[in-house]
Each structure stands twice: as structure tokens, then as C-alpha cells.
Amino acid sequence: QVQLQESGPGLVKPSETLSLTCTVSGVSINSYSWSWIRLPPGKGLEWIGYIHYSGRTGYNPSLKSRFTMSLDTSKNQFSLKLRSMTAADTAVYYCASADSSLTHFVYWGQGTLVTVSS
Amino acid sequence: QSALTQPASVSGSPGQSITISCTGTNSDVGGYDYVSWYQRHPGKAPKLLIYDVSNRPSGVSNRFSGSKSGNTASLSISGLQAEDEADYYCNSYTTSSPLDYIFGTGTKVTVL
User: Fold this and answer.
1) Which has the higher per-residue pLDDT, A92 or B97?
2) CB distance B93–A105 less than 8 Å?
3) What is the 3-state secondary structure (H, E, C) of chain A?
4) CB contact under 8 A, A102 and B93
5) Residues of B with Cβ-Cβ distance to A94 under 8 angstroms
6) B interface mutation test: which of A105, A107, A110, A112 has the most B CBs within 10 A?
7) How much is the pLDDT for B97?
8) What residues pair up with A6 in beta bridges, in sequence order?
9) Is B46 in contact with A58 (Cβ distance < 8 A)?
């Protein structure tokens, strides 16, 4: 059974960097494509970016300049860093995986709420 | 195109059928058969209901079905049940847009 679990701080100060980790179990991270998706309060889902096990990446152009993703195969984890956080980045952050077709997200984490506030 | 357009809310009585629309452009929904649908209950992980327009993953009830016509995709729920009350999102995978994945604005389904 494939499971994804997000971890990270629930509160981040404006201008700081958010670091989140997604721990994957039930499948090797050396497969599929791994994404971050967020849900701001009162808004819809927003795709942030993905990293493929081959190393190929894709980013939402609106966030590309502030966003970095990486894989840690030794821990079967992947992570994101989002710099220069503002109140507009307050959201529930989900990690998710797409299978080899890349066309849809098969597995999702439960999400972690990140609030940006001083 | 930053988001696909969905109705904000749809409601129905138990046993009825409802349909949620998802409208995009020729560059996303209309250009590819890569529309997927997700159900999100508060506090839970979103769940894949439909992929590649009309395919149901194993374990998803056959009460959920998907279709597409032109730039508009649709999710239909038949035999509406109380447990279907949730938020629903469409998504289009595209290789011709700056965005690889475009989500819909989301639809709140209420079971009356």
C-alpha cells in the first residue's frame, strides 16, 4: 500500500523559506513522478511543480523563481523549498505522485497546513 | 490559462444524478484526453476518481463517470449518496501550456 506523508513547520514568518518533506512508503521513489500541490484558503488546488525520478523537473511559472525540489533516494523522500514566503503562500500543502503516464495523480498525502504570519 | 472553470456548487437529493462541468481551452482540456477528477473531503487526502477523461481506477464506484466534449469535460455522479458530499476538482495535463497541470476552480457538492 502506497502512502505519502508531508512533514514540516506549520508556521513560517514572512520572507522566510518554507521547507517541506514528503516521506513515501510502499513504493520506491526511483519510479514515477513526484509533485507538490497546494490549496489556499477559499481557493482551488494549485500545482506547484514536479520532479521525475530521472531528475527531470517541471514548475509552475508563477512560482518557479522561488521554488526548488529535490529527491533523497536514501530516505525515500522528496522535498520542496519555497523562498520569500508571504501571506499569499498560506495553504494546505499536499505531496502527490503521478504514475508513468504522468497524466494524473494516483497517490496523495493528507496535506499539511502552512500559515505565513509574523 | 491559470485555472479551469467549474461551477462553485452543485446540489442534489439522495438517489439523484448530478453533473459537474470543467471548461478549459484548446490548449488543455480540448487538446488532450488527459482530464482527471479528484474528490476531497475536509482533512483527508484527495482521491482520484477518473483519469484520462473517462477511466475509473480500481476500487472507485461505477456511480462516477467522466466524459468530454470540445473544451468541456464533465463528471457525473449517479445515485447520489450522503458520502458524496465533498469538493471536486478537475485537472488537465498538458504539454503545450506553461503549466504542466491545470486544476479546476473546484465544486462543492451538497447532498440535500
Assistant:
1) A92
2) no
3) CCEEEEECCCEECCCCCEEEEEEEECCCCCCCEEEEEEECCCCCCEEEEEEECCCCEEECCCCHHHEEEEEECCCCEEEEEECCCCHHHCEEEEEEEECCCCCCEEEECCCEEEEECC
4) yes
5) 45-46
6) A105
7) 67
8) A22
9) no
pLDDT tens figures, A46-57: 999 999 988 888
Rounded mean pLDDT of A20-27? 96
Residue pLDDT, tens place only, B17-66: 999 999 999 989 999 999 999 999 988 999 999 999 999 999 999 999 99
Do B89 and A103 lie within an 8 Å CB cutoff?
no
Give the whole-number percent of chain A exceeding pLDDT 90.
Answer: 81
Return the number of other C-beta atoms located less than 10 Å from residue A35's C-beta.
Answer: 26
From B99's Cα to the closest Cα of chain A, the distance in A is: 6
